[in-house]
Amino acid sequence: ARATVGGDDGLLSELLAIYIGEAIGLMKEIRYAIDETDFGTIRKAAHTLKGASLSTGAIATSQLAEQVEAADSEIPEEQLSDLIVQLDMSVQKVIDDAKDFIEKTG
What we know:
Layout: H1 9-35, H2 39-55, H3 59-70, H4 77-105
């Protein structure tokens, strides 16, 4: 992620702060869309989360978001639920790490 901002820790802190807010909102959107069985919204939110995660260097989170993005109505509900739990835990770890970084550099 530092390469994305040219090694500027202040700018990276700003990027991470934006990511935190965006990721929280996108996960809420994904959870709501699952409750509504709205795969269009699931795909859109997961796609956005995939790109945001990639921009912060959260490769594993981006890959999980990509798997959620690829889900369709044929995926068993339990499998989709497991994917969402994994994605949620991964996003939370990135958020925790981002908050730690912001606190240390702020």
